[in-house]
Amino acid sequence: MEKNILETRNLSKKFGNQLVVNNISLQVKENCIYGLLGPNGAGKSTTLKMITGMLHKSSGDIIFNDHIWSRTDLEQIGALIELPPLYENLSARENLKVRTMLLGLPESRIDEVLQIVGLSNTGKKRSGKFSLGMKQRLGIAIALLNNPKLLILDEPTNGLDPLGIQELREMILGFPKQGITVILSSHNISEVEQVADYIGIICEGELKYQDIKDSQESLENLFLEVVKKEN
């Protein structure tokens, strides 16, 4: 039986009196790609920020690797949420070196992640001069530094050209073979359809659908059916 690396149980978040995430219960299998879909403002990013400790939950539980989540679990979780956290005056290698020093990781890890994301040959070029696709890849390299068991990517294809999207897709598809589970949050339905093993659909702060992806069914039709039902 496949093990869940991550579960949320009735996870909720309020900002003041506004309930933006309402009793979400995700089940993410180990070594899979879990596609998290939803309209803009549905609560996807807020949910992921709670899982990564960027936001405190209002109620509910987060279970990571069979135990209640604690901040020490961030050592096994990598994330790229919103914009890559770059020092734009530093090169790719220098950006990664800052993180290895902060995290107490061996410097040898820098070359490993640069190779994974295809940025080994950027030399001394400042990351502020990178294309958007290169910045996204450097953000993923930073997320991979601690060799995570769970990698969370929130809208990683935003602003990428078709070649950049294809390269990122191939990279994501390779992660489960390396023992890395991926949660991919996106509004790009066709991109999720090409990589995901499981699908979750959030609408108006609630999880409205969760199941293994059906290769015989159009994901766009499923998404529209779920979202229109709520509206």
Automatic annotation (TrEMBL):
Originating species: Streptococcus taonis
GO function terms (MF aspect): ATP binding
UniProt keyword terms in alphabetical order: ATP-binding, Nucleotide-binding, Transport
Every ABC transporter domain range: 6-229
Record has Ubl conjugation as a keyword: no
InterPro entries from the UniProt entry: AAA+_ATPase (IPR003593), ABC_Gallidermin_ATP-bd (IPR022501), ABC_transporter-like_ATP-bd (IPR003439), ABC_transporter-like_CS (IPR017871), P-loop_NTPase (IPR027417)
Signal peptide: none
Similarity comment: Belongs to the ABC transporter superfamily.
CDD domains: ABC_BcrA_bacitracin_resist
Pfam families noted in UniProt: ABC_tran
Protein known as: Lantibiotic protection ABC transporter ATP-binding protein
